[in-house]
Amino acid sequence: MKKSFFTESTKTEIKEKERIDLSRIIKVKDLEDSQFGVLPSSILIPRGFENARKFMKHGREVKPRRFYSLGHASEDGRTPIQLREEAFNNIQNLYYCSYSIMPFGKDERKRKIALIECLEAARIFAFSHQFGKEILIKPYDDAFRVKKDGAEIIAKVPSRTKNHHYLEFKLMSVPIIDSPEKYRISLNFNSDHSCPSKRFNIRYKYLDDKESSSVINICAHEIAAYLKTIEYYWNIEKNIIPIQMCHFAIPTQETVNYYLKFENNLLIFDESIKPKDKLRKPNRGEKEIGLWALVAELDYDKTFYSKKSRDGDVADYNWSIK
Ligand SMILES: [Zn+2]
């Protein structure tokens, strides 16, 4: 059972609203609270993918510019935020399963970051502030290795389920010093955390392709811990490096409102399912595609570049719209 802050409407609750049949994903944006949209499954997960899990694993990724050496990255000099803007504003369609970053150096495992995980991270972060369940972090940043390998941060993040109170893990390779090394350190971001969103690939390691072991899926818990890290370094240490080198897209309030419509105002028409009405809730892959549709429509600035003057603080976002 999820805590009520994280629950979405059931199919029965949604069906009590006024039905609107939709022909384009982006139309979800215009649904009112009292309405529910119906999208045919055929315009969501693209042909060739048997199911959402396969799509989330093998679908195309948006790829912010890759660098092949520290010199290459520091010569370019752009921050991850700027590289994301370039990549997000140049997407060719909506059918992406995530964006990804690629470290250079010893650890060459690709990091995949799904937009739905960025949304869920913002939700955990808001929950922690609004319900007095603070994310706790303890940085280990005084060692001489920090300049080379980044800081290690022990984080305790509240879980979304009712029985579990906190998840504890260690973030590694967090950039906190302003030196050319920050480019390499930020791309090497990792943690010792494990949860279903991360294990996703490992479980199928022997059934699917070899790629599994060369990919790290970043989950909402890790991103939420990173958001807290940004807040800590900026508010307490007056240090801008964690936000400047942040590889995680931070949604705007408008994007949150749209995402909540996927949970509370949308059903998918799917002929392959048993129920007579052929309606079901959207799955992870469909929500991910829905978010890329919003990026395609509104561009990066309005979707995944949170601005205090327009959106307020991510900690104060309204997640209660049903
Ligand atoms: Zn997790």
Core attributes:
322 residues, alpha/beta, 4-stranded mixed beta sheet, 12 strands, 36% helix, globular, binds zinc ion
Question: Concise description?
Answer:
The chain is of the alpha/beta class and 322 residues long. The chain has 14 helices and twelve strands. The strands form three sheets. It has a four-stranded mixed sheet. Strands 3-4-5-10 form a four-stranded mixed sheet. It has a four-stranded antiparallel sheet with strand order 6-7-8-9.
Q: How does this structure look, described?
A:
The protein has 322 residues and is of the alpha/beta class. The chain has one domain. 36% of the residues lie in helices and 18% in strands. It has 14 helices and twelve strands. It has helices spanning 11-15, 52-58, 70-76, 80-88, 115-130, 146-149, 181-187, 196-199, 220-235, 241-244, 253-264, 284-298, 300-304, 308-311; strands at residues 18-21, 35-40, 60-62, 96-101, 110-113, 136-140, 151-158, 166-174, 190-191, 215-218, 266-269, 279-280. The strands form three sheets. It has a four-stranded mixed β-sheet. α5 (115-130) crosses α9 (220-235) and α11 (253-264) packs antiparallel against α12. The protein is globular and about 65 Å long. The protein starts with 10 loop residues before the first helix and ends in an 11-residue tail after the last helix. The site of zinc ion has 6 residues, from α8.
Major sheet strand order? 1-2-11-12
How many distinct domains?
A: 1
User: Could you tell me the strand content as a percent range?
Assistant: 15-25%
Which radius of gyration do the C-alpha atoms yield? 20 Å
Small-molecule components bound: zinc ion
Structural class: alpha/beta
Beta-strand segment tally: 12
Largest sheet: 4 strands, mixed
Number of helices: 14
